[in-house]
Design goal:
1 helix, Porin, 248 residues, mainly beta
Length: 248
Amino acid sequence: MAVCLLLVLANNACLAQTASNTENIQQLWFGYFTQTRFSNKWGATVDLQLRTKENFTDHFSQDLFRGGLTYYIRNNTKLTFGYAYASFFPGDNHTKITQPEHRPWQQFQWHTAFTKSRIMQRFRLEERYRRIILNDSTLGNGYNYNWRFRYNILYEIPLAEKASFFKKLWFVANEEIFINFGKEIIHNYFDQNRLFIGFKYEATTVSSLQAGYMNVFQELSSGNHYKNINVIRISFFQNFDIRKKERK
C-alpha cells in the first residue's frame, strides 16, 4: 500500500515538472475534526480547516466549515449527509474580494481492521455552489454549479506493539482523487489528486494528532494550467461516544 502511494507521489512530481504552465506552491493546512456518536444508529461530524496561500506562511487562501449527520449501518460502515461552507480569500481572478461557496455533500464510509493495520475508505459526492465573480473586486448574483466526486483511501500501521511511546504512534498513508462533472465543466474533469504521508499520535482514547507532508496536483478550469502544491498538514482529531450504557 505505502509503495503504491509513493509511486503516485512520484508520478505527480513528474507531471508537475513536465506539464506546461504549472505553478509550484507551498502551503500549511490546519484542521480540527470531531465525530460524536449519540446512539447505536446516529452521530454527527464537524470539521474546521484553515489554509495558507503560498511560501508556507504568506497570507491565507481558504477556510472551511463542514458538518454532517451520520447514520451507522454497522459499527464500521456509515452514511453521512451534510453541508460545508468555504471562503476563498482574494486570489488570482479576484484579488480584492473573498469568494464564498456552499457545498451540500453525501458520503459512504467503511473501515477494515487487520491484525496489525487498518484501512478507511470513503466515497463522497459534493454539490458545489460557488458565487459568480464579475471582476477583480465584485461578486455577481447567482452561483456557478458543478458536482464533484471524491474517493479516499487511508492506511494506518502502528510503529510498535509493546507498551511505549511508539505504541501510540502510527504511520499514515492517504490517497484521495477528485473528479468534476456537470454541464459547466468543460476541460478539467480531473480536478486534483492528494497524497499524504505522515504520522498519527494517539494522545488519549478520544484524541489524536496527525502531521506530515501532502502533495496536491490540481488541474485548473482552463485545462492547460496546473498547480503543484507542497503542503505541511497538521490535523487534530477527536472521537466521542456518548451512547448511554445498556441497563442490565
